[in-house]
Amino acid sequence: MIHAISDKHVRLQAAQTLSGNSKSSFRRALPFLGPAMIAAVAYIDPGNFATNIEAGSHYGYGLLWVVLWANLMAMLIQTLSARLGFATGKNLAEVIRENFPRPLVWLYWIQAEIVAISTDLAEFLGAALGFHLLFGFSMFTGAMLTGVITYVVLYMQRYGFRTLELIIGAMILAVSAGFLLEIIMGKPDVATIASGLLIPQFPDNYSIFLAAGILGATVMPHVIYLHSALSQSRIKVLNNEDRHTAMKYYRLDVIIGMALAGLINMAMLILSAAVFFDNGHTGVASIAESYKLLGPLMGHSAGSIIFGLTLLVAGLSSSVVGTLAGQVVMQGFVHFTIPLWLRRLITMAPAILVILMGLSEQKVLVYSQVVLSFGIPFALLPLLYFTAKRSLMGNLVSRKWVTVAGAISATVIIMLNLFVIYYEFNH
């Protein structure tokens, strides 16, 4: 289990923070930072590349506001997930298992596994595509390399949760640095960016379909389960005051992690809008095409190379997180675990099948994110219900306005999903 590995140094620092013996503000927060960084990786996976690139190419900066609001939803939801795990000492899947009828639990497990498969499909395809674009490997070879590398990273868990957090954190910073360079080279228009962020709009029906994909790629349902597991027994507390103090730092962790992921997502869309849409290339609808065009349009081959590297790192890191989430889902719902290497092999299968069938990576990536959007309410509604129960949460029960905000978010997501069904049946 993810939370079974202890890190004595981190826990000692946490004890010093809660006892008031840690003087530095940074040192006080440090032991609580990390879980949200791992969760944030899922918010910058290749599925995000696919939806954000297509949105930026087709509609310029017009859907930038969707990324912003989706990220604000993610902050709220991931805070609730961390709160549930910390307050109960159990992850969301375990709490559902203990409180829902058994047939419903099995239904939840099946849909959660479908979500996990869709997630891993996007992450594997993205990493394999990164290897293909950068080094000329076949997609099949890229997928095999992805499987090996992600398993090696997962193996590092045995050296403590902090080790894995540092590896994942370094990967996120690498992706961030890459997109910062890309934005500087792309020279987007600041006024147009502000307009895209502040003025909600849907130019046509397909933009709503893409918005659902962006939402699914941002508010990742499998990470709702994972984040509650990452915080469920990380830090031990002795009283209610310490619980409040620790939760304050967990909230800071979420704000930092989700803000970083949100900025990266915005950078993806802004880059696509600035380089493609602003130059008349409104039909760019694939990661591979983006890779080929970025260098020539930006006037430097580094544009394509940096993009390829960010895709590869994002795919590898998010694939690690996807496998961890799959373990949490299986262990929580059915109290059954399999070795990580075996789960890694099983979750590789759909991506290998897509590659062997020669299906369009872009279409598979976008549709996988729409599937994720359908999975969000299944995780979000129980999360809202449980975190509002004082008998379960104690003094960490959610305030009413938080539950209302979560309910509004769930309603918006469900309405978008209903539109997607309507759109698909009429096209």
Could you characterize what this model shows?
The chain has one domain: Amino acid/polyamine transporter I (Up-down Bundle). Helices cover 79% and strands 0% of the residues. It is built from 19 helices and no strands. The radius of gyration is 21 Å and the shape is globular. It starts with 7 loop residues before the first helix and ends with a helix.
Keywords:
Amino acid/polyamine transporter I; 19 helices; mainly alpha; 427 residues
Q: Could you write a compact summary of the structure shown?
A:
By secondary structure, the chain is mainly α.
Structural class: mainly alpha
Quote the CATH topology.
Amino acid/polyamine transporter I
CATH architectural name: Up-down Bundle
The total of beta strands comes to: 0
Give the topology:
Elements: H1 8-19, H2 25-29, H3 35-41, H4 46-59, H5 64-88, H6 92-99, H7 102-135, H8 139-155, H9 161-186, H10 190-198, H11 205-218, H12 221-230, H13 240-275, H14 287-298, H15 302-334, H16 340-357, H17 361-387, H18 390-393, H19 400-425
